[in-house]
From TrEMBL:
Residues 34-73 bind DNA. Residues 97-198 form the CoA-binding domain. This is Redox-sensing transcriptional repressor Rex. InterPro entries: CoA-bd, NAD(P)-bd_dom_sf, Rex_DNA-bd_C_dom, Tscrpt_rep_Rex, WH-like_DNA-bd_sf, WH_DNA-bd_sf. Residues 1-12 have a biased composition (Polar residues). The lineage of its organism: Bacteria, Pseudomonadati, Planctomycetota, Planctomycetia, Pirellulales. Modulates transcription in response to changes in cellular NADH/NAD(+) redox state. Its main location: cytoplasm. It comes from Rosistilla carotiformis. Gene3D superfamilies: NAD(P)-binding Rossmann-like Domain (3.40.50.720), Winged helix-like DNA-binding domain superfamily/Winged helix DNA-binding domain (1.10.10.10). Residues 1-22 are annotated as: Disordered. GO terms for cellular component: cytoplasm.
């Protein structure tokens, strides 16, 4: 409203998003996520500490790689004792931004979208899937795994009302750029893109591309290389 100071004005967009430390290499980021998964399993089994050697064995990397990766998080380990699992998980989650809750929208409620809506791993990591969107009238107005499927025309109003920060794109390739542009205009800070194409770049928007066919090609190359 007019007359309000910047501090008192209410934002209708998603909350401000911090960035992962750019000094951490992408390969290290990928391993830290896997460390957190294995550390969580060890904690559920009653373990309180873990050595760099054991953590490396669980991920098929050397203990030197583990120590180098964890050093990006600060001084965590103790010689002869190893890493305390609880604080290490907490530090990884803080670095990855998963120590808080994220509101996520899914665009595309077809076969892949259905599978994503039924996946329970999102909630466990603090990602709240608040709504899905589609252009098919036969799918819209349904609830799938407790998640409402809405017409794509409601994208703007819903994302603003829910203050969505992240989006998953599971639309046909020819619709991907147009939908991504709408998401960027709404202030969505990150897009997980399943469409098999490289999206346009939008200022302030982080994009992670997941091309399953390309991943299979990398797998086939690895298999052929071993033969």
């Amino acid at each position: 409203m007019a007359g309000e100071s910047p501090e008192t004005q209410k934002s209708t967009g998603p909350p401000h998003i911090g960035a992962i430390n750019p000094a951490i290499p992408p390969a290290t980021v990928a391993r830290l996520i896997l460390y957190a998964r294995e550390l969580g399993r060890l904690r559920r089994e009653g373990e309180s500490h873990v050595s760099s050697k054991l953590l490396g064995q669980l991920l098929s990397v050397s203990d030197a790689v583990v120590r180098r990766d964890v050093n990006h998080l600060g001084s965590m380990g103790q010689r002869g004792v190893g890493y305390e699992i609880g604080p290490l998980i907490q530090q990884i989650r803080q670095t990855m931004g998963t120590n808080r809750s994220w509101k996520v929208a899914l665009i595309g409620a077809g076969s892949l979208g259905h599978a994503l809506m039924r996946y329970r791993g999102f909630d466990e990591q603090g990602f709240q899937l608040v709504a899905a969107f589609d252009t098919d009238p036969a799918i819209c107005s349904r609830n799938i795994a407790g998640i409402p499927v809405l017409p794509l025309e409601q994208l703007e109003t819903t994302i603003a009302a829910e203050r969505v920060s992240l989006a998953i794109l599971a639309v046909p390739v020819d619709a991907a750029d147009a939908v991504a542009k709408r998401l960027a205009a709404l202030g969505v800070a990150g897009i997980l893109n399943f469409a098999p194409r490289t999206l346009q770049k939008f200022p302030g928007v982080c994009v992670v591309n997941v091309d399953l066919a390309s991943e299979l090609q990398q797998l086939s190359f690895a298999v052929v290389s071993q033969q």
